[in-house]
Amino acid sequence: MGTDVILRLDDLTVRYGAFVAVDRLSLELRPGELFGLLGPNGAGKSSSLRVLIGQRRPSGGRVTVAGLDLVRDWQRIKTLFGYVPDRENHFEEFSGRRNLQIFAGLYGVPARRVEECLELVELSEAAHLPVRAYSLGMRRKLLLARGLLHRPRLLYLDEPSANLDIHSTAVVHGILRTLTAEGVTVLLTTHNMREVEEVCDRVAILCRGRLIALDSPLALRQQHVERKVDVLLAGGARRVFDLDDDDARACLGKHVAAGEVASLQTREFDFHETFLKLTGTPFE
Where are the strands (E) in 179-224, listed by range? Predict the structure, then answer.
């Protein structure tokens, strides 16, 4: 992975009247990185994305893409990224192939690229069907294919696994890993912690427009997981042992050595509890 910064947010601020949706957000993304913006509805994820795709000007701060200023150099920047929205906007009466052909013409990419993208998202066999006959998952994958037509250096995805079945989710995640291996930077917004853990190199957790945590999913898990063990003893008693406590560990060891443990279970990472601990607000 390269060390240059492809996307930089310096104190990005987005206001809607008196309401501050994004509050001085600063981030740096590297080439080939799969980065997640994680948070509940209203955290500022979509507002940040609207700035990046040119739908809204920043109220404050600065954004640069490949060293170019987002506002001043917009005409040069808009060809560098692809965007997969959370809401579809296909031409319903046209086939999946025709939908891509229209955008391929706008991007000036060859016709063979349409077929490559259809195959990539497993829509080749349904390419001749009108989009109105597509399932929700097929529509989502067609959006992804469209966003990849011009081989962008940056790919923005808003809730990429929404409405996808297990297989399609795996296909999309595989595509994203392939893209980052080729040097493409992927930024996705989600409220799905499991998705972040499965695919992201780093994640930024937002709450009320502010950055409250930034690290790899593994590091966040290690920092915030409860190091406690729920134990059912042979006599039916239930105990909780804190593994950070020397006496508790010693006591648990004695029960195990004596064969008195009927079952033992460690506590899994709970993002809802972690979010509550970080913000004082439940994740909704």
Answer: 185-190, 202-207, 210-215
